[in-house]
Amino acid sequence: MAIQLPPILVEPAYGYARPDGTPYRPTVREAFAEWLDAMSVWRDRRRLLPFVTGAFHIAAGIASIVYLTWFLSWASVPSRIFSFAVGFGFGIVYHSVWWHRYCTHKAFTLRSLAWARLFLWTNPLGYRDETFVIPHRIHHRLADRPGDPYTPLVGWLVCYLSAETGQRVNTDISRAQYAGLVRGLRHIGLRVNTYEQFQRTASIEHEGTFLLHMVVAQLLWAVPLALYGGTMWVLSFYSAVFWSMFVLRDFNFRGHADEPDHAPAPPREYGDGWSVNHRLYGYMSGEWHNNHHACPSSARMGFLRGQIDLGFLFIRLLHRVGIVRTYTDQREHFHETYVARTAAGEAGPAAVSRP
Length: 355
Known about the structure:
- By secondary structure, the protein is an all-alpha fold.
- Helix content is 54%, strand content 2%.
- It is built from 14 helices and 2 strands, in the order αααβααααααααααβα.
- The protein has helices at 28-38, 48-70, 77-104, 113-122, 129-141, 156-161, 175-183, 195-201, 207-229, 231-254, 279-285, 289-294, 310-320, 331-343, and strands at residues 108-110, 324-327.
């Protein structure tokens, strides 16, 4: 008789599925109640890090509002250009290349672990690497089905708040399950907790180390800006941080069809679930998500004509200068497996199935 292992993620209080087996879409009240509970460190210290990341996102949002409303003059134009450029760059470097292609899918390898730690300790976005990686791997296994931490079927608000609610690792998992999660994160360069520490903190990365590299990253970016331009430039930076994270949280929803019943019909779709090649995010950072679901381990996501992939261009640059050791490019495989079969009139192995 098979042993029933505990689920990796904590199921929301409102549940994953309706009685008919479709994903449950909570009300706004249910979504906010779950989010507040996930950050209630006063009830359970294991909620400390979700509280920190949630509070940091709110604080960055307030900084953005202050910057956009109080500093309205020609003198602020250079800082606004800087804010836009930095936010755009973060989307490519930390979102797409670091968290998505490297940490989660291991689509390329770095010359040494020291380079991974450089990404880790300079990332100022206040978001835990493990809370991107683990739920995203589950997302690929359960794309747009009950248990998927972020699918448009549960609504935009749940997807946006999933950084704190839908991505909590279950501290009741077995020692063997925990060891498997640790192995899957070794390439990131984290200082990991023992199993007993994990049960006390609900964090795979050591709490103190996460807080330390979060603070170090803030100082590395904010102090030079404060010395250069004072409060306005610091606020412009945190405005970029907020909008960069807003885009990431929003992509949890936009990366799949906003309205699955109206999604493009096969054979234009190549990946699983309702993943779509959203042009805005494709051009911004190379996140051609439908292509990605078809070939998740590929460092390149822009496979079709006109699909510019800035993330992949950055990876190739790092490879040329010797920082990236190897990378996977599945463009040829994609065309042979999906495009050629579609042109021949075959459904292909990844044609979208609808309920």
